[in-house]
Amino acid sequence: MTERTEAILSEVRRAGDIAIPDLAVRTGASEVTIRRALTALADQGLIIRTRGRAQTPGPVLYEALRDSGFQEHALHMAAEKRRIGLAAAGLLTSGEVVAFGPGTTTTATACSIPPELPIRVITNAVNIAMELYRRPQARVYLTGGDLRPGWFSLVGQAAAEAMRDTIPDKAIIGVTGINVEQGLTDDHRDEAAITRIMMTQARQRIVVADHTKFGRTGHTRVWPLEKTDIIVTDSGISSRKLAPYEARGVRIIRV
Question: Which CATH class is domain 63-254?
Answer without folding.
Answer: alpha beta
